[in-house]
Amino acid sequence: MDLDVFVTAHRAEWDRLDYLLRRGGHLTGAEADELVALYQRTATHLSLIQSSAPDPALTGRLTQLVARARATVTGTRRAGWRDVVTFLTAGFPAAVYRSRHWWIPTAVLSTLLAAVIGWWIGAHPEVQSAIAAPEELRQMTKPGGDYETYYSSHPAASFAAQVWTNNAQAAAMCLALGAFLCVPVIWILFINVLNLGVGIGLMSSAGRLDTFLGLILPHGLLELTAVFVAAGTGLRLGWTVIDPGPQSRRTALAQRGRAAIGMAIGLALVLFVSGVIEAFVTPSGLPTWARITIGVVAELVFLAYVYVLGGRAARAGDIGDVDEADRSAELPSAA
Fold first, then answer.
1. Within 13 Å of residue 45, how many CA atoms lie on the same side as its CB?
2. In angstroms, how far apart are the furthest CA atoms of the chain?
3. Treating both helix axes as pointing N-terminal to C-terminal, what angle do 209-242 and 249-280 enclose, rounded to 10 degrees?
4. pTM
5. Percent of the chain as helix, strand, coil, to the nearest 5
6. Which of 55, 134, 140, 296 has its CA 20 to 30 A from that of 249?
7. Torsion sign over Cα 242, 246, 248, 251
């Protein structure tokens, strides 16, 4: 394509579009229709230039022009409570439901790995001695030791805030770093699994695995599920870089990246609930069975939320992305 000839042929249309945009709300009906037609043609021109004869200056001008025109044509919209309700009842659970083929295997494999690590540490005293000195191990695992007092070492409210912040950061990092070919996500997930496996191994070697599980399960079921969802979604995002499927890599990453941002917000709420349980239920004087029951109920409520509301929204076509009107314009592909 001869760029000079193309610019000469269409410059008047671009200038006319710019003029109409500067007039803002003072357009007649015919001029508004003309603006829409010019916006569509200019978007096609931009796509042709990008694919056939990229010119930085011209591409920059037309990109800005198309963005201004799109904002004028589609208008602006303020988010309200209706958007929050839609996000919580459809967008977030649909995104979690759609990514279940990633986070469920992640959860299963991570749990098995934690069990294997726990068995390995519990069955091999030499491994335990490599972790800490015998006196330090006794201090951690004895009745009233570090593993038990950890959950009551700070005031409940501040402990809940600390736990929530740490877990939300880990989940956000899994989601944000997933695009780096999955490697950071695998590392973050491994650290969490390793810590769990060490606890299982040390407490089982001391004959107190039941106490450890009684402390972990009330909040850990929901907490670990949220981490597994974040990790699975991060891995899915990383795989999109490798294999975007039928979409262009840019479009696929944008779509799944926006859904991941929404999931970070939703998972922060889920982790807030698990943090409250960890701060107020885990160290409470309730019987072990009652504390575990609370954790199991919280987990089942979350899974029902994902599979009932999320499944329904996903079958209705919700992909967990923002509304179409709030997405960046996707330019048509040149033939």
1. 27
2. 85
3. 170
4. 0.72
5. 80, 0, 20
6. 55
7. negative
